[in-house]
Automatic annotation (TrEMBL):
GO terms for biological process: protein O-linked glycosylation via N-acetyl-galactosamine. PANTHER family: XYLOSIDE XYLOSYLTRANSFERASE 1. Keywords: Transferase. This is XXLT1 xylosyltransferase. One of its GO terms (molecular function) is xylosyl alpha-1,3-xylosyltransferase activity. It comes from the Eukaryota. The gene is Xxylt1. Coiled coil: none annotated. GO terms for cellular component: endoplasmic reticulum membrane.
Length: 227
């Protein structure tokens, strides 16, 4: 097997012009920091990786694998037509919170509502990027344009700080057909921050996950259970 190491500075240089316009909407700082571009790598991966690379799995570091990661590649075969990215739902009511204004103006909306019927948003800890589909999708590439990003952030009154995850979540509210939703067992998030920050009443509707966990995600520095 072959290991290729990519230079962060080199990647950032290619990324920055593509994602610069997004950063002010989805970065923690108020400014657009050059170095923040790396948190948007997944969004533009199809424009940065060589054409012969058709599929990539991008994962966070705070994961524990209970199964062979190779099995996750099979999920690419389950993408419906038009889908470009495989991603699991966010398992906390973070986007219920972020979309509060849109939700108040649209009381019947599914935006920010818990599964199975709601749209809780996505968590980018485990990402299946079908680079070939991303390159070919006219819709996906239109959504990277600054004017489109601006239009959607205005529509949803969206201001985030989680990088690519916020972008995918916002786009998923508008165009769910671009995403293949992975089962929660592929990205079993453990962070419970929002339980103690005003959402204890609804927290478990977001946090529950049936089935044998394949990947644990110790987000927000949450310890991962020992075997």
């Amino acid at each position: 097997s072959q290991v290729i190491v990519h230079d962060v500075n080199e990647l950032t240089e290619k990324l920055f012009p593509i994602v610069e316009a997004m950063q002010k909407h989805f970065s923690a700082g108020s400014g657009t920091y050059y170095s923040d571009s790396i948190f948007f790598l997944s969004i533009a991966m199809h424009r940065i990786m060589p054409k012969e690379i058709t599929q990539i799995i991008q994962v966070d570091l705070d994961l524990k694998y209970k199964t062979n990661i190779r099995d996750l590649f099979d999920e690419f075969d389950n993408f419906p037509a038009g889908a470009v990215i495989g991603i699991a739902r966010e398992m906390q009511p973070v986007y219920r919170h972020t979309f509060w204004q849109y939700r108040r103006e649209n009381p019947q909306t599914k935006v920010g509502e818990p599964p199975p019927d709601g749209l809780p948003g996505f968590n980018s800890g485990v990402l299946l990027l079908n680079l070939e589909a991303m390159r070919q999708s006219k819709l996906y590439n239109q959504l990277l344009e600054p004017t489109m990003v601006q239009k959607l952030t205005e529509k949803y009154h969206f201001k985030g700080h989680l990088g690519d995850q916020d972008f995918f979540t916002m786009v998923g509210m508008e165009h769910p057909e671009l995403f293949h939703v992975l089962d929660c067992t592929w990205n079993r998030q453990l962070c419970t921050w929002w339980r103690d920050h005003g959402y204890s009443d609804v927290f478990d509707q977001y946090f529950q996950c049936e089935g044998d966990v394949k990947i644990y995600h110790g987000n927000c520095n949450t310890p991962i259970p020992e075997d």
